Amino acid sequence: MTGASWVKNEQEDIHTMSTLIGIDIGGTFTDVVALDAQSGAVTVTKVPSTPSEYSDGFFHGLEKIQRMADIDPHDILRLVHGTTVATNAILEKKGSRIGILTTKGFRDVLIIGRGTRSILYNVNFDSETPDFLCPRELIREVGERVNAQGEIQESLNEEDVLREVDFLVKEQGVTSIAVCYLFSFFNAANEERTYEIIKERYPEVRVSLSCRINPRFREYERTVVTAFDAYIGPVMDSYLSKLENRLEETTGERVLQLMQSRGGITSAAMCAQRPVLTLLSGPAAGVIGGRTIANLMGRKDVLTLDLGGTSNDVALIRDGKISLSIDGMIGSYPCRQAMMDISTIGAGGGSIAWVDDGGWLRVGPQSAGSYPGPACYSKGGTKPTYTDASLTLGYLKPGSFAGGEIQLNDKLALDAIKTISEPLGMDVYDTAAAIHRIMHNRMADQLRLATVKRGYDPRNFSIIAFGGAGPIAACRILSLIDFKEVIIPPTPGVMAAIGLLSANIEHEEVVTVSMRTKDGDLEQLRKCIEKGLSMCNEKCARVGMDRQQVKVSFSAEMRYVGQSYELEVPFPEAGEALSEESLRSLEERFHHIHEGAYKQAFREVPVELIALRVLFTQAPSAVPSIRKAPTGPWGQPESTRRAFFDEYGGWADCDVYDRKVLVADQCILGPAVIQQSDTTTVLYPGQSAKVDAWGNLVVTMSK
Prior knowledge:
Blueprint: E1 19-25, E2 29-36, E3 42-48, H1 54-69, E4 76-82, H2 85-91, E5 98-103, H3 109-112, E6 139-142, E7 145-146, E8 152-154, H4 158-171, E9 176-180, H5 189-201, E10 206-209, H6 210-213, H7 219-251, E11 256-259, E12 265-267, H8 268-273, H9 281-297, E13 302-307, E14 312-318, E15 321-322, E16 324-325, E17 328-330, E18 333-335, E19 339-340, E20 342-345, E21 351-355, E22 361-367, H10 386-392, E23 399-401, E24 406-408, H11 410-424, H12 428-451, E25 462-466, H13 470-478, E26 485-488, H14 495-502, E27 505-516, H15 522-543, E28 551-560, E29 567-570, H16 580-598, E30 607-618, E31 639-645, E32 650-658, E33 667-669, E34 672-675, E35 680-683, E36 687-691, E37 697-701
Parallel strand pairs: 1-4, 4-11, 5-6, 5-9, 9-10, 13-25, 25-26, 32-34
Antiparallel strand pairs: 1-2, 2-3, 7-8, 11-12, 13-14, 14-15, 14-20, 16-19, 17-18, 21-22, 23-24, 26-37, 27-30, 28-29, 28-30, 31-32, 33-36, 34-35, 36-37
């Protein structure tokens, strides 16, 4: 037997009675994985993404995998999707026209924002609040007031609501409304009644309530995330409706699930109700896939590096746990939802190289995407990209790519690079090498920020590299920064799609508490716990989670009195009998976590419990299985190729391997190129790769 892989080859016949499919849409390619629920065998493929209408690429990939794996549409048990539709709508400012209803006196919360500024002395001041979401004339005030104890001081003025909604919908053409009233997280009655009034009058208008989207204090952050939800809601509604309606026609059922920003999956219906859950849907899936590999290999401290066609996403996994943020960001704007702590830069295979006004070579953040794509794709692109440079330097093989979807043309790549090498007065090959250096150094800086800036020694961390271009770049970064190793999974080009099928089903609810731990009201805390559990139970039934299979966990958002931001603290006692000792234990746990995060704790300062999180988790019924790598005589190179290496100051011959022939314990010395259907790995001079028992390539600097 030959070939180290956790999947069956595209040519192998696969028939299954129950199939799970993962589809991850990236900026350039859409990755597709089919899982046989009985055997655990996996089939993978890639197709170009279709940014003009992402659903076209979705169904192109689905139809292709069905043909490859001989899947009957009615045998699809569930289909898990990772998407960037919501994120792109915000970053490209292509959301819906929205209005905002707020309490009288709070009209300018979104515009004022916070007093902090990222660049203090910028004379060309640009607003750092997302005021593009809703112009001031579409932010309307209504009479109502809830105090900080949750008591209604002023009943909702329903005439105000009707008048302002008529103005927004009839006169301004608003299709989505965000409702954000003062202290609604303590008492949601006025917001809920506003929802009823709007729906009675305009059932077609989408309504986002802050008490449902983000029931937490801080008016600006709560307004922003509720406005984001309203802004992307109609976009996601349209997208998901197209998918579900067409899927229902073929499968007979609505089987679609989506990846959430924190790394769990839920039903498409739930994401349609709360689309802000999906803002990091695509990148989160890759991190889950990387963690799957890390757990298999027993690696506790790793960085995932996902280099696709448009961006590079980096996430830290410390002691086996993915770093999460309870105060996420989208671009430069706050989006207070629990999400993975992922660093993203505009650096990918499609990143365009260009010469600035000062005559300096730049790479990115603009991307050629999938259409027209890099020049070498032969789709009409003429601008030089990182992929064109990779082909020109001899790292990629001209011809068929991505399962036959793309044909790489080395002449077109060379011609594209000449368009900038000539103005620079440089040799075309030196220019291609310079493109790589710029990209790799930007990524190296990104990885330093993820480790050194946080106080971690890179030498203790492994890099798990995936994405179409990840194995080329990560091995070069290994020669720039002293990481422990680079690990390249068996199918790095589709790791995000594999992560979709490895993720747990999750649902989370947050309940605002606001009490000091020293003199906390246990009865109030019990009521908050019961409220969170009730909300999760209700959602659990709606998304089809099996309550008998559900794991329940609790955490608390805590801070020192007077602090501006909170830390998340595990709260295992929340599900048991609460006592004064429970609060003391929780307080001490907070001190410990604070000391770990900031190197100091202030045990003499009172501690506040701000909010309680309830998380329901259910493991998937089937996950991709990784086959052990074959054993036997070492696989031999299929050819040699001349490639450009900085270490040699130019060209050198290197062995070229087909990854399918590699066996367990085989070692390969660089320089070498290892090819497979979904990506290419480059071993640079001074590096070696060993195939482990599971078919992963473990790359280290040679001793």
